[in-house]
Amino acid sequence: MGEEQVVREIGHDEYDPKGTLALIGVYFVILLVMWVFMYFVEFLGNELTVV
Amino acid sequence: MSEALETGTPSFIDRFPQEASVVRASLISSFIALFLGAIFGLIQALHRTDVFRFLDSQYYYTVLTAHGVLMVVSFTIFFLVGVFTWATVRSLDRPLVDIRYTWAWYGLMAIGTLMAVVAILGGFVPSSDISADVLFTFYAPMQAHPLFYGGLAIFIIGTWLAGADWFRAWYAWKQDNPDERIPLQTFMVLTTMLMWYIATIGVAVAVVVFLLPWSLGLLDSVNPLLTRTLFWFWGHPVVYFWLMPAYMLWYTVLPSISGGRLFSDPLARVVFVLFLLLSTPVGIHHQYVDPGIAEGFKMIAMTNTMFLLLPSLLTAFTVVASMEHGARQRGGSGLFGWLRALPWRNPAFTGMALAGLMFAAGGFSGMVNAGMNINYLIHNTIWVPGHFHLTVGTAVALTFMASTYWLWPQITNKPIFSRPIALTQVVLWFVGMALMSNAMHVMGLFGVPRRTAEPQYQGFDFVASFGSITELRLQLALGGTLLFLSTILFVSNIALSTGTPRMSGLGKQLSEPLSPAADSPKVLDNLTLWFGIAMVLVVLAYILPLASIITDSGIVDPGVEAVPMVVDAANGLVSISAVSDAASRVVAAIVGVVP
Amino acid sequence: MNIHNYEKVWLMAAILLIVGFISTVTYGATAVGVDMISDDGGTVNASALDEDPRFSEPRVEQVGENEYEAYVIAQQFIFRPDPITVPANSTVTFFVTSPDVIHGFEIVGTNANAMVVPGQVTELTVEFNEPGEYGLLCHEYCGAGHHTMEGSVVVQPQDEFTQGGDE
């Protein structure tokens, strides 16, 4: 199966998960935007304020 | 998968045949529950959307109770005990202390499930007074037959004994390895079980002290707010009981399958300790719009819940970093290009990766659910099932199914029957869930309720601010149908795998983490310390709200009468012939739909 | 303990996000003034609602200038009163309870969303603006007829309300 096709070994000190940082950065932005939309537009913009 | 894999590593069943039997039995029980639960899920998806109805709507709630209990009690927890037995024995590299004890707890779990399921299915038989049309949450004063509560109690006791079994194995290992760090998989098993012991206090008290005696007529009344609060004491941490085995697989198996190594063992330990500490003192976030609970307690639950996001957010990083490591070891390069170097044709990999991706979305809807006042927007709407079908329904369920493709050969010495079908299955699940859950989230925002057989009302229409309700209903029905087909593919593939020829060489090694356990402070392994702190946090979160409920409305509330949830003959279905009528319509429907 | 720098960055970002969520919710609670349902409604004898001055006759009652109280019973499988009629531009405090099982109370398409527990009184204050009509439904399974449990909330222009009276 697939997992045997390792072409090079990468050790602890040589590895910087740049791709992960980039992806998680995108996720962070999505979370931020979605939260602002959900809270301020959907929720606070919804009818009938509960006080 | 007929290529021989010839690492020459002995497989798990070679080394530990007795334990492998228990693991297999647990997994098979799990998949039977999944299969039955899926049938009920399909019925619901078609019924509530008005695409196809063959049952009287009152039976929808019997179906819904069965679907909930089979999926989130039986399917998930039987899988957990199987995979935790495998993980403990494998990582300690020694057998369990007494296999008869092991079979005993498995037997209790099986008996408990059977009792509860019989009670629930009794709801389809109007002439019987055995029923449990109370849903997974069994809120008093709706009352089920004692068989239901008794079954649940016995099942939970089985899980407690299972935890003790793994602790015993660890103690035995510790005598022989006094200065070693706890192997990571065992660490995860033990911290999860400690979390479970704390969490089940709530539901055990609710069921054993109140609901079971009440259903037997030994107690005249219960306080519905009290039992509901005790339920949710357990009802939130149970989701971590579902998630933590999935996380264990993401942390300890997925990196190897990706061709790489776990990015950080220490951080994995920190994450599991955080779950032990924070999973339980948050349950009141399921009661944000309940009466009888002061706003201050809801605020505390909200803050604890928001911090409970942290271990999951950390997991996202560590797991993706481990996959990236594998991709780059496989020759991948570039900022995003490495994604293509991952083993997408391996169904175990693809299933787990898609499960993780879906969890990222489910995590977001969970953040909304946690937001105290924003809960007014979505409480008890179908947004909530939309959320949990992404989390337990995919992050957990799809990971369990995907990891089975990897684990099954090692506990049977038989390869999986068909890799292409397995790969199709995991992708189909993802697509079906994307459609169904998206429809649920959107309809929830328009106010469509959950737990309702016919969300089509006389006096008003739901207003869709984008799309249309009709479209969304069809989308939900379609998604649910695809999920059912995916379940069939999974169950058949595993069933057919019992007939493949026995082989050797199916053993698999797991890679070593990039950052080993030794890099972390020993205090992480101090389980007593973390357990103690967890108990303190739970007491702080719950003592005042519970005391306040008891002072205000009593430990029991004599003003509230029991409402036995038995199908009411007066509502129209009075004879067994009506049930067999319905049954033959089910058969006709299935035969008609499947050419 | 050795944590990679990138993961430290993410840890900071994650904590920021969490604090951000908590702050938003706090803003909603304080600046916008959205209160959560609490224990202010008190308790009640679920078997003796007909002896309670509020619930023996479910109704809407004026208690101040533009201030009203609505005493509502949620039971298998109706809401009382039905419809619940309130005037436009008013503040209405709902007191909701149940004589039988747990119900839900959702004014459809709005943020008015609550649980109704027998023995407890749910107190929920809502501001109504323009005239119109809302659906009301029960969103917590309460028995075989749960899906038929609906009502409505009718917001009448002020003058119509004073003349028509409350039911």
In short:
Chain A is mainly alpha-helical and 51 residues long. Chain A has one helix at residues 18-43; one strand at 49-50.
The CATH class designation of chain B is Mainly Alpha
- In CATH, the architecture of chain B is Up-down Bundle
The outline of chain B comes out as: globular
Low-confidence stretches of chain A: none
Q: Regarding quaternary structure, how should these chains be classified?
A: heterotrimer
Task: Indicate the CATH topology of chain B.
Answer: Cytochrome C Oxidase, Chain A
* Largest interface, C-beta within 8 A: B-C, 85 and 71 residues
- Mind telling me the C-alpha Rg of chain B? 24 Å
How much helix, percentage-wise, in residues of chain A? 40-55%
* Share in β-strands of chain A: under 5%
Q: Report the span from N to C terminus of chain A.
A: 60 Å
Distance between the termini of chain B: 29 Å
Secondary-structure element order of chain B, N to C: HHHHEHHHHHHHHHHHHHEH
Biggest β-sheet of chain B: count, sense, barrel? 2 strands, parallel
Helix content of chain B: 55-70%
Residue share in β-strands of chain B: under 5%
Low-confidence stretches of chain B: 1-5, 569-579
The number of distinct β-strands of chain A equals 1
**What is the tally of helical segments of chain A?**
1
Q: Tell me the overall shape of chain A.
A: rod-shaped
Keywords (chain A): Membrane, Transmembrane, Transmembrane helix
Protein name (chain A): Cytochrome oxidase
Transmembrane segments (chain A): 21-41
